Amino acid sequence: MVSERDEAGAAAVRAVKSSERTLRLLEVLAAHPGPLAITELHRLTGYPRSSLHQLLHTMAASDWIAMTADGAHAAIGSRALIVGTSYLDHDPALPWAVAALERVRTQVGYTAHYARLTGSDVLYLATREAQESRRRTSRVGRFLPAHATALGKALLSERTSVERAEALGQGELVALTPHTITDRAALEAQLDEVHARRYAVEREENTPGVCCIGVPVRYRIPATDAISVSIPLDRAGDDEIAHVAETVRDIADELATTLQRSGVR
Predict the structure, then answer these.
(1) Would strands 36-37 and 73-76 be described as parallel, antiparallel, or unpaired?
(2) How far is CA 182 from CA 45, 117, 179, 196, 212, in A?
(3) Taking the model in full, what pTM does it have?
(4) Residues 93 and 264: beta-carbon distance below 8 Å
(5) Would you kindly state where each structural domain of the chain is located, as residue ranges?
(6) Are 226 and 146 in contact (CB under 8 A)?
(7) Which in 58, 65, 81, 175 has the greatest CB count within 10 A?
């Protein structure tokens, strides 16, 4: 005979499993640039077809996802945008960070980004585009591998070798371009150099034709946030890199001081 306690325990397990599936489904859809075929969702998640269809219809009813008219494709829904925007609205560092990006853009003339280290990735929290920028899509709310960005390199350099390994995990480092450093020993040596000079330089490791400079914002120890500047590769000579790095370091230090004095931790 099954006791009430056993039934309650089984129900709790089912609820947790359903929650995990819901979150996983949102992550898969959010990582895709457009509507994803249900057949592809089934392949990526491995969920039983009947469970997947039931979950999709439940989430669509509350606008967490959007379904195409024929029901064959799904995309992230408007309610997810509300939650994501709320994250930005409630981050106490962002108002000051955005003001710092404005200063960076004004002083160096290039696109500036602000991001946070999250596991093995950096999460873009704010961007100020250069007037001549050709980018048509914002990086805000997007993740990129930390090892392939100047932002991530700047933040990883603030950590010990053990902490770096924990952040990057055990899997292979993904190559976003032919220039991405994926050898862990080479990356470790590069991060030591970054730590010594307090800024990272990344050339075409995630975007062809672009050189990026990243500087940590040390209002937390170790730093969790960083500022970067994207420079067209043909303008990224040694003198220009040195000038931009010095400018961004000064602004990042001022930002860190402001955040600490304001009680942001």
Answers:
(1) antiparallel
(2) 27, 18, 9, 21, 18
(3) 0.81
(4) yes
(5) 4-80, 91-261
(6) no
(7) 65
Q: Which of 3.40.50.720, 3.30.470.20, 3.30.980.10, 3.30.450.40 would CATH assign to domain 91-261? A: 3.30.450.40
Ramachandran area for residue 66 (φ above 0: left; ψ -120 to 50: alpha; else beta): beta
Rounded to whole angstroms, the maximal C-alpha distance in the chain is 79
Please give the Cα distance from 218 to 41 (Å, whole number). Answer: 40
Amino acid at the residue 83: V
Distance CA 197, CA 175 (A): 25
Number of helices followed by number of strands (H, E) in the chain:
9, 9
pLDDT per residue rounded down to tens, the chain (265 residues) = 555 554 444 444 455 677 888 888 888 888 787 898 999 999 998 898 888 989 999 999 999 999 998 889 999 888 888 887 887 888 999 999 999 999 999 999 999 999 999 999 999 999 999 977 666 556 888 889 999 999 999 999 999 999 999 999 988 999 999 999 999 999 999 999 999 999 999 999 999 999 999 999 999 999 999 999 999 999 999 999 999 999 999 999 999 999 999 999 8
CATH number given to 4-80? 1.10.10.10
Answer yes or no: same fold for 4-80 and 91-261: no
Q: Which residue has the tokens 């945008």?
A: 81
Helices (H), 31-149: 38-45, 49-61, 78-89, 94-108
